[in-house]
Amino acid sequence: MVPREASLSVIGLMAGTSMDGIDAALVRIVGSGLDTEIEFRGFTCQPYPREVRERLMRVAEGSPTSAGEISELNFVLGNLFTEAAFSCAASCHMSGRVDLIASHGQTIFHHGRKTGECSTLQIGEAAIIAERTGVPVVSDFRPSDIAAGGEGAPLVAYFDYVFLRSDRVSRAVQNIGGIANVTYLPAGAEIGDVVAFDTGPGNMLIDAAVTRFTNGALAYDRGGEIASSGRVVQGLLEKLKQHPYYKVKPPKTTGREQFGAHYLEEVLSWNECRNCAPEDVVATLTALTAETIAISYQNFLGKVDEVILCGGGAANPTLVDMIKAATKLSIRIFDEFGIPSDAKEAVAFALLGSETIRGIPSNVPKATGAAHRVIMGKISLPYSRR
Fold it and tell me: Residue 133 and residue 123: Cα distance in Å, rounded?
């Protein structure tokens, strides 16, 4: 284990539920817990090759597959994650040695405890990353929390607590990736006060609708332009809001298993969708993300002074305006805190890996439902050529 006060250069690697590519962030981390100092050095995003993304989407959406397909993708992604780490180090003009790589991997399955037997699977073979880079790798963070009775998610809540906790202001840190998740940090919070959970779909349904309506020409609603040209269909929105997930009390998590492309196809078959223009469907799905965020705050959070938005959804002005209208709260963008919003989750996993290598627990039991705090992740060591 590394001493708690040591200074480490860490690359964090993250691939989210949107499955658009691999985020890589280089940071310098000194210390641990609330004494942690994080110096952001740079960030890159390496898009998945189209064929790889299509394979991943098929597997994650539950299409018939085989153990062989999953095994092959695990090793394909191991090499892609390695290239992302190399690219990040090069673009940041890294001088000196990277001490650690922390890789979340790519989630292809996640089943929350409240919807059945809890299980999770992230791929992107860490042994390949360690072998090719010569750097220790921490990966596979979620299973330790699940073994302790948790959901294995959300894990970024620990980073939010360390980096965004305030003695004066109660904050809702709202990430909008494929799935939207919130971390609630009451003013002066101790780690036992932190609440975090998935609020529901973020960009996932919006992206699926845009991809379907454009026959794959577009993969997402750039700048919210499609949504802004449509109208919100209130009858459809009200029916969408009746999904039972929104009433489930935290801790809770969700994913493509509930809100993937198959759910969009179900929605499009509803009478409420009949005669809806494509832009109206996109506008309504965008409003769904905003309103289910607001509903989650009303039902499950205490006083909120400000919302901090991050993730891809923070770059969608139409969605941001809808969130402002739905929550009636002050909105800030995570970039204001010195780290680009797009880099946040990669930086978060760099911190989680740093805590693991120091022997520090980094789950948040009240967020995940775990019985106790655990040291997360598995360590892959490279061959020493000394």
Answer: 18
Domain ranges of the chain: 7-152+343-380, 165-337
| Contact predicate 103/124, CB 8 Å | yes
List Cα–Cα distances, 221 to 262, 264, 273, 296, in angstroms: 19, 16, 19, 24
User: Would you tell me the crossing angle of helices 261-268 and 204-213 to the nearest 10 degrees?
Assistant: 70
pTM: 0.92
Residue 82: CB partners within 8 Å, gap ≥ 6?
128, 129, 132, 133
7-152+343-380: CATH number: 3.30.420.40
> What is the distance between the alpha carbons of residues 218 and 279, in angstroms, rounded to a whole number?
13
Span 304-359, pLDDT tens digits: 999 999 999 999 999 999 999 999 999 999 999 999 998 999 999 999 999 999 99
Instruction: Give the whole-angstrom CA distance, residue 77 versus residue 59.
Output: 14
Reported in sequence order, the residue ranges of the chain that DSSP labels E, i.e. its strands, are 7-15, 21-30, 37-47, 100-111, 119-123, 137-139, 171-176, 179-185, 195-201, 306-310, 330-333, 378-380
Question: Which CATH code fits 165-337?
Answer: 3.30.420.40
User: Do the domains 7-152+343-380 and 165-337 sit in the same CATH topology, yes or no?
Assistant: yes
Three-state DSSP state, 333: strand
